[in-house]
Amino acid sequence: MSVPDGIVQAQMEALLRRVAREQEILSRRARDAAEEQARGIVARAREEARARALQAVADARLSLERATADRRAALDTEARQREQALLRGLIDSAWQALPAALTDAWRNPPARREWCESACLLAGRTLIGAGPFLVELDHDAPEDAAHFALAELPLADGRAPELQRIAGLGPGLRVRREIACVDATIPGLLASRERVESELLAELGALLDQQGRRLA
User: Fold this and answer.
1) ∠ Cα 138 139 143 (to 5°)
2) Can you give the pTM of this predicted structure?
3) Least CB-packed of 31, 137, 178, 185 within 10 Å?
4) Are strands 162-166 and 173-177 parallel, antiparallel or unpaired?
């Protein structure tokens, strides 16, 4: 081989080595880029999977909270319904027992006196007119009822209150002045069921507060 041929051969070999090195560098760069891209894809996949898992946990927690809230609301509603049913039963029982309880109170002298005096005090404050007061009592009402009532009513235009006995009137009394009337008989006292029930509820609430108990 001549010298020129040797030089050309050396240059070719050098060129081939440089090409090989450049290919190796390019291949390494491509491999590094591919690995970096793969790592990015894996990282994103992991992040997305983690986000989906967190969202699933959050959705499950929210669903549980909603279910718990719905159940609590249902239990509260059931408790209110039971309480209302219990109250309704107590009020109905009390309403049915009131006529007998009032009759028993009328038969008791101290209670009868308070009954007559309260009715007459109310009549003296509310009944207006020019005529005298008229007390109506049952034909068989005790004499002390008439005494209690007549003693409590004031004079009207210098005229003393009058008494009238009525058969079948029952326990209690009515006080009239002209066309106005305070009806303190049992039917008169129970005429407004709504008012009586509200008073019963107030009494029941006060009793429960005193005893420190709650309706269940």
Assistant:
1) 85
2) 0.59
3) 31
4) unpaired
